[in-house]
Amino acid sequence: AKRVGKGVVRLFDESMDEGVRVRRGIEGGLKQAIDRGELSLEFQPIVSRDRIEVVGFEALVRWNTSDFGPISPSTFIPIAEESNLIHELGDWVLANALTELAAWPGQYVSVNFSPRQFRRTNFVGHITQAVLAAGIEPSQLQIEITETAIFDDSDRAAETLYKLRQMGFRIALDDFGTGYSSLYNIRKFALDSLKIDRSFIDGMGRERESAAIVHSIIHLGRALGLEIIAEGVETEAQVQALRIAGASHLQGFYFSHPVPADVARDMAVARFAT
Ligand code: C2E
Ligand code: CA
Ligand code: CA
Ligand code: CA
Question: Is the CB of 121 under 6 A from ligand 1?
């Protein structure tokens, strides 16, 4: 029989091992995912509040592993972000999103960039190259970054955003409201839109606090001349409440789940009746 003390130690070690093993496994698999053709993109429409027309699509990466089936980006993006893999993965996403977009002009494509990608040396040159290679206008790419990407080295981030905006790229601050930023300290960043995090939209109908936060983000964001994209819109009631509150754009399952490129292409010309 094993001694209790030893058993406790071993149990602890084993659970540590498992976490590390899973991480290594994902890291290893991800390294080969591109070559094996296991990555793909889905696109989710972003619609304007007034005319309910599709103004753009957010590109979302998908990984269908041959061994374990689909793995969520919420699982593998943070692991890629901890290593240099995020760069290769991000380059793949950007190039493929832009290629799809070139085939159906008229809308922008909104691409997620992790903090590490954004802080990469010569990020601006890198993005510019990609857009030139795809033969599209900078205004057809919206760069989505989170508060974490810009608050650590905020002077440098402000300069990068300024340059990007000068070149004509669109810039969106993603998951807004979940980080440390306030509307007061985002003034210095060149932005086009704020994406209100899904958690606040979700809470709107239930808690007065969420509704109040949504209202103040919309109110002050508009005063700063920003577009306001509400994320995670799932119900008719949310659509109506957000319209009244003055959100300029809506995105969520109510309109469409993320879909493959060929389905998105048909949606590009559709109007959503509400
Ligand atoms: P995110 O950027 O906040 O993307 C929105 C997430 O919410 C997506 O999850 C989308 O499928 C989901 N969603 C959209 N509408 C609704 C709705 O009405 N209800 C609910 N419950 N969910 C909705 P997904 O595709 O699983 O992506 C998760 C996260 O992974 C993204 O969050 C983003 O942070 C990251 N991610 C995805 N693709 C990329 C990528 O290409 N590059 C990077 N760096 N990160 C990515
Ligand atoms: Ca996003
Ligand atoms: Ca988001
Ligand atoms: Ca999110």
Answer: no
